[in-house]
Specification:
Blueprint: H1 2-10, H2 17-24, H3 30-57, H4 64-71, H5 76-84, E1 123-127, H6 133-137, E2 149-155, H7 158-172, H8 178-186, E3 189-191, H9 192-211, H10 218-229, H11 235-247, H12 252-259, H13 264-276, E4 285-288, H14 290-293, H15 326-347, E5 350-356, H16 364-373, E6 377-379, H17 389-399, E7 405-410, H18 427-448, H19 461-481, E8 487-490, E9 511-517
Parallel strand pairs: 1-2, 1-6, 2-5, 6-7
Antiparallel strand pairs: 3-4, 7-9, 8-9
């Protein structure tokens, strides 16, 4: 089976996306010529990767940039660890750097977990929520006739908090449609109607703050005030602004995702979005988004240019029987979920309060504030990547009530576990894991990948190899993270906290899990994850 997978993978032919794009968007302008060159360079990078994957397996990781990417650290501690490490060993002396955002996240780009059950009449605390966090993904589980669910979101970014406050204010206005809120959240182009609703919301928030200064602190207020005064931005200015940013970035990953789409129309739609960040682009979208296309370092308004496709559940990006286009499906998902979200906000069954703050062992005020909520669920985003397990559990126990469960993910766990990367293992067996990874990905993709997605899109050899290696050693991270803690842990189907790779996942190696301290009595049934005695899973 490994040989079959290797043979089929070596025959992958990438579509000529730059020619497909040029058929719909003429290349006679300088802008579109630059776009087509960017597309072509991405395809060439993927072709080069496919042709060198196997030969590079036998190489050595001796470039410091590769080492830094692998371990996110270059230090004497790492050198000492690598001299004696065996597969499955934990890099105990790895630094834990506190979270310091490089720039404000423009919209929800957290790796998608499985939806949770939202409980009416309870408190949910979302740490690092980035706009609407887990609540948006799970909005279908909230009873519209039940007691209010109160969500308190803490984020380190004043821009994220400011934008969330504005969008919630827009939701409360009965004249505002779901599409307008989605445009503010995710799109570089707006309609005139969206622009007016945005300006009205900023004005309303500033007036509220005058009579009640506790609504916004000074950092958040400065950003709302900046956006309230921003002038109109033309459509072309916004598109040029976004394209300039895209052309500065590496091109391989977006083109990997594009090549995973089966139809030419979907590929062109996806490339257009990557180049413009315009979720909607039609005759009504004539104004550039001040949220995405303006910056001012003096008040903390910055840009990230990330892809909202990472916030779309994978099955929503698939082809359905009606033949609806890829971008229409994405738009329909966001508008449909936003409409339900807004209905709950308007009828009072969802009270969402975004706050500026970072949870840390030293921030006792936030710890005590959360404790008094007695939350039924605390969502930690990827906090475990930035705090030592002993400090994390000290805080988690302090804020836990008798019915509190904790859900989170870690993007960087594999940088603490030796043996999860191709260069950690003997070169003689790398091809075995590479072929096995391709074989397993092929078998699983047949059962889960919906129509419209190519069965085997381009993959870097380290990602393919890690598909097996991470499943083999992920339980070692859990043994480290929960050492001396008495917990029940759960994950999807109780098998592995790692998802099956799909084209639009932000990080295939991200782990998603939920746990509760055993004294709460909370268990996870068939989803229970027995990391303590788990054996190899490949």
């Amino acid at each position: 089976m490994q040989k079959v997978a290797l043979d089929e993978y070596s025959k992958i032919c990438l579509p000529e996306v730059e020619k497909e794009y040029a058929k719909r968007y003429t290349t006679t302008t300088r802008t579109n010529l630059a776009a087509c060159m960017w597309i072509k360079s991405g395809l060439m990078a993927n072709e080069s990767m496919l042709s060198t994957n196997i030969s590079n397996l036998s190489g050595e990781e001796n470039d410091q940039r590769d080492m830094l990417k692998r371990w996110m650290e270059i230090s004497p501690n790492l050198e000492a660890f690598l001299a004696v490490a065996k597969p499955g060993d934990i890099f105990l002396d790895k630094e834990y750097a506190p979270y310091e955002p490089r720039a404000s996240q423009q919209f929800r780009n957290t790796p998608l977990a499985e939806p949770i059950k939202l409980n009416n009449g309870k408190f949910l605390v979302d740490i690092g929520f980035v706009d609407f966090g887990m609540c948006f993904d799970s909005i279908n589980t909230l009873d519209p006739s039940g007691e209010p669910l109160t969500v308190i979101g803490y984020d380190a970014s004043a821009q994220c908090v400011a934008k969330s406050l504005i969008m919630i204010q827009m939701m409360k206005d009965e004249s505002v449609e779901a599409r307008s809120v989605v445009e503010v959240w995710l799109s570089s182009l707006w309609t005139e109607k969206t622009f007016r609703a945005f300006k009205k919301a900023t004005s309303s928030l500033l007036n509220q703050n005058s009579s009640s200064p506790t609504v916004m602190n000074s950092k958040v207020r400065s950003i709302v005030k900046f956006w309230s005064k921003v002038s109109r931005i033309s459509k072309q200015t916004a598109l040029d602004f976004q394209l300039k940013a895209v052309l500065k970035e590496t091109v391989a990953t977006p083109m990997m995702n594009t090549c995973a789409l089966e139809s030419e129309a979907d590929r062109v739609d996806h490339v257009r979005y990557v180049l413009t960040k315009a979720l909607y682009e039609d005759e009504t979208t004539i104004i550039g988004s001040p949220v995405m296309c303006k910056s001012d370092d003096r008040v903390g308004v910055t840009q990230m240019f990330e892809s909202c496709m990472e916030a779309v559940p994978f099955n929503n990006a698939s082809v359905i029987p009606t033949g609806e286009s890829f971008m229409n499906r994405v738009q329909r998902y966001f508008e449909g979920s936003m409409k339900r979200f807004m209905e709950h906000v308007r009828n009072g069954t969802l009270i969402f309060t975004p706050k500026l703050g970072i949870l840390s062992p030293d921030n006792e005020d936030i710890i005590q504030e959360i404790k008094q909520f007695n939350p039924f669920l605390v969502h930690w985003s990827n906090v475990p990547d930035y705090i030592r397990p002993c400090d994390f559990h000290k805080i988690a126990k302090e804020i836990s009530g008798p019915d509190t469960a904790h859900v989170m993910h870690s993007c960087n766990w594999s940088t603490r576990v030796y043996g999860t990367d191709a260069f950690d293992i003997n070169p003689a067996v790398r091809l075995h894991f590479y072929g096995g990874g391709l074989s397993h990905m092929k078998m699983t993709s047949r059962s889960i990948l919906p129509s419209g997605i190519v069965e085997m899109p381009p993959r870097h050899f380290r990602d393919v190899t890690s598909f097996l290696l991470c499943r083999k050693y992920v339980h070692r991270f859990f043994q480290y993270f929960f050492k001396d803690e008495d917990v029940n842990c759960g994950c999807t189907n109780g098998n592995t906290p790692l998802k099956i790779p799909s084209p639009f996942l932000r990080n295939d190696l991200t782990i998603h899990f939920i746990f509760a301290y055993k004294d709460t009595g909370i268990t996870f049934g068939l989803d229970s994850y027995g990391f303590e005695d788990e054996e190899s899973q490949y």
